[in-house]
Amino acid sequence: MRPFRIPGEKARILTLVLYFPFSILAIETLAHLNLWQGLLLLVRQPFAFLLNTMLFGAIAYFLLAIFRNQKLVLGAMSLISILVGLGTKLKIDFRGVGLNILDFLILKEAGEMTNNLSESFIIQASIYSAVILLIFFFLILNMPVIRLNPKIRKNGVLAFVILSLFLYFFGPYTITIKSAGIKRKLYIEESGSLYYFAAQIKNTTSLKVPDEDQVQEVLGPLLAQIPENASTLMPDIVIIQSESFTDPAVLGLDNFSEDPLPYFRALQSKTDSFNISVPSFAGGTANSEFEVITGMSTIFYPSDATVFSNYLVKPTISVGSILKNNGYSATMLHPFHSTFYRRDNAYRLLGFDTFYGLEYLAGTKVVTEDTRYWDAVDDYMTDEMLYSHVLQELDKDTGSPYRFVMGVSMQNHTPFVAPEGYENAITYLGGKLENTKTLRIYNTYLSSLKASDDALEDFIAALSARKRPTLLLFYGDHYPKVNQNGNAYMNLGLVDDLTTPENDYITHVTPAFIWSNYDRAKGTSDTLDASLLLSRLFSGTGIRTPNYLKILSMLSQRNINSMTNAYLVMDNTFYFSDSPEYKEIYELYSLLNGDILGGSKFLEEEEWSIPENKTYQNPQSSAP
């Protein structure tokens, strides 16, 4: 008997039947590097498991009809299954979502990610992959030959086309239950990795470039109503995007061993304090950042796509280019890989002078493994350390009369690790998190948040001592990812589900404030859509701004709390996509975004982007 061969026709047929569900099990196991997690899709989402199996089978049927070589086709699909599983693992851990079709546009970035994997991860992934590959080999070697006549081959092609059309017109929301007219984000543990990937095929941009007549007819009259800016104040400007910064007080402070944010809370009455609605939940940092620094909206892009990575391909107006056109130097700091989200390229196109990533900033801190798979994950740079770099850049002689520095923090990024001295500083006492792992993760986040509050106090004290007028915008980018699907926030009592517009809105609101070391309007106010934040920051200064920001400033006066694909919240009232109020605001957003991001810029009388940005720098080392 030949090795690996089993006797009996029935046994061999069984291997053919088992091959397809095993392929899905293999993908899910590799997507989590855990066999039990791989089985959870079958246990908890049997319909999704069946749909993934059918999809895998349809693809195999199609390829067999085309190539007619069973071992070649199934061997190739086995290898692809392993790659999809591992690719999904990386994508889930780095970005909290599964693979999508746009990931093929950023293979270079993916290569950078894999180049920095820890040894322990590589060993674990290799063992799982080797075992799965051996099982695939055994199944393929023992299964009977599938013979397809011309008619069956034709039907295979037809079946694949029908399935593809189904996914295009009905995905990615076929599995996920909807209510109240909102299409909830498709979670990969509910859909399965393969279906998740296939369902994103139709997830394309809806951005449309308007003609000049449309822009002038609708936006021109609005622009004519805006008064001239009389201020001459040109302060130095600092923007801090604080990773996963939220205020647990929304759950009731009596649920915690102590207030994690005492300084932030005291600061609210002394600053221009408010909330912002961001496009991201439990991940998607770069999309929140994109909305804030450009004033543009992400509603015209796929929900799981990153604008920086997938769509930013030409010089674009941003806070960096606007301030450079006002005589400022523009510096960006982010203590993670420069290539992640393609930030190294994005900041050049957005008009910044300099971008300091982890490669440069780590010169002051020993970092040996720089990714999610660190063997020592506490090497995320603390807020305290990032702020010291920001202060250093503010005082640097750049040759420009005014300075702009932005920092995008990492301290509160998953996996959460409280900075030294803050271990177990804050604990949740509400008793609603019964899962011990989730409770431990949340307590660590709370303790890290306390460290952020202390660092913020020291940072503002340093800014207060500056002689130059200084303006600080501080905001959180999204809620923290306490568990994969966000259900922890239902357990905590923040929301009762994640599907209604009201609860969707709640989970996309984060704190923000604008502080200055000079007299400026103070007090608390309501929630503001993140795309309107930049126009608010510039108000009361002598900074010249593009015309589109002036219109956004006018829109902010209408108290637009949140603008999404499914609903508008304006003056704390919900309007859905079929309402005249929604259609009016959507048209304005569509014209503004289409005109500016589409490149025509009919609304602008001067060039506000930096077309070539030849002086842009992205230093890779701080060594002399």
Write the layout of secondary structure elements.
Elements: H1 9-32, H2 35-44, H3 46-67, H4 70-95, H5 107-114, H6 119-142, H7 150-170, H8 188-191, H9 193-199, H10 212-218, H11 220-224, E1 236-242, H12 262-268, E2 272-277, H13 285-294, H14 307-310, H15 319-324, E3 328-333, H16 343-349, E4 354-356, H17 358-361, H18 383-394, E5 402-408, H19 436-464, E6 470-476, H20 488-491, H21 501-506, E7 509-516, E8 523-529, H22 533-538, H23 547-556, E9 560-563, E10 567-570, E11 573-576, H24 580-597
Parallel strand pairs: 1-5, 1-6, 2-8, 3-4, 3-5
Antiparallel strand pairs: 2-7, 6-7, 9-10, 10-11
Helix pairs in contact: 1-2, 1-3, 1-4, 1-6, 2-3, 3-4, 3-7, 4-6, 18-19
Walk me through what this model shows.
It is a single chain. The protein is of the alpha/beta class. The protein has helices at residues 9-32, 35-44, 46-67, 70-95, 107-114, 119-142, 150-170, 188-191, 193-199, 212-218, 220-224, 262-268, 285-294, 307-310, 319-324, 343-349, 358-361, 383-394, 436-464, 488-491, 501-506, 533-538, 547-556, 580-597; strands at residues 236-242, 272-277, 328-333, 354-356, 402-408, 470-476, 509-516, 523-529, 560-563, 567-570, 573-576. An 8-stranded mixed sheet has the order 4-3-5-1-6-7-2-8, with helices on both faces. A 3-stranded antiparallel sheet has the order 9-10-11. α3 (46-67) packs across α4 (70-95) and α4 (70-95) packs antiparallel against α6 (119-142). It is globular.
